[in-house]
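May I ask for a single protein's sequence together with how it folds?
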Amino acid sequence: MSNVTIQKRGKFYQYKFEIAKVNGKRKFISKSGFKTKTEAEKEGILAYNDYLNTGSSFSVSDISYADFLDYWIENYCYVNLKYHTIEAYQNIIKNHIKPNIGFYRLSQITRAMLQEFINNIYIKKSFSKNFLNNIKKVIKCSMNYAYEYDYIKINPAIGLKLPKYDIQPKDPAHIFTDEEINTILERFKNNHCIYYAFLTAYCTGLRIAEVFALTWDDINFENKTISVNKNILKKNQAGGTKQRHLSGNSTTVWYFGTCKTEASYRTIPIGDTLINALKTYKKEQEENKINYGDTYMKHYKKNVISPYNNKTETKIVNAYSEIDVALEEVNFVFVKKNGVYEGTDSCKYPFKVIHYELGIPCRFHDFRDTHATRLIESGADIKAVSKRLGHRNIDITYNIYVRVTEKMENETANKFEEICNFL
């Protein structure tokens, strides 16, 4: 090997190779004491390769794609991505990528192999286009990382394509009618946490994680505004049981997280309907605190260090009112009568009721879609709607959230009919 020189020193052989200069001076690594030239050469090559790979935790030629994905998750995803995105990627890797192509060496993976993998999943699993696209995204992102940091010489994910879907995937959104909104609110009029959460979502278009992250100091009753400045996210901790958070043994822990995008940080005006409703709800909540006394559940912010990226996170901890806690209190808007906070999990059972009992197709996001569509129907400025929803640009508002309704189609036909009056 030309980079390693072998010299004889007395009765023994020595290997020697040059390393990076320090202060402009040439530096070398050498070792003597080998009985044969072959032994010195072999050890010299190993030492030189170790020097070249310093800082890398694996040998590129030997690592499997499965092990590299673990490395990518730890060194890229934990540092740069949000918790739920990482969780989704890990599920895809565990259930789909590792069992099928994870056992190949990273250096063996070819574009043809990846395309065949995508095609086979499309044929055998019949996944939706969105989910198959997420699988492709994990492959492309991990391979881009491998290529950018010189773990592979050729990126096999370039040009990877999804198979053509002959039938366009059905839009999962359902735009609630006025009758459906009234039916839903009437059904939950006695469950005030859900009632007011649904009403808030419908009147504001907030995302579910934004709604349940709201605290009373986010609502300005005088100026009639709501400030969106955080999300709520759930992390399943190791150990414990799957009992409710109140038990103290739950694996579920709530954290405050950052908003989805920079544009998601916003202050939106709200009307008297929601303002008056929230005033009523706040008064009732204060009465509940008095009625439940020491058994009312309170919540607090605790700063902790994430084990994944060493960044500070805000964890939500809870305690009965009778316990003094030396932490800043969090006054969530949407809690049960006894103060217990269940975050976005609060909607799990209500949506089963809406779907099976009321017979209304539903997702929480449908409140957001309905809010945006109704505003556009009524002639609201698209830029104002986009800002209200927290979108980066109006294209997102048009293409993703605003659905063409029968009313809008009829109005379009009527407008053209007016144009044709001269005939």
The mean pLDDT is 87.
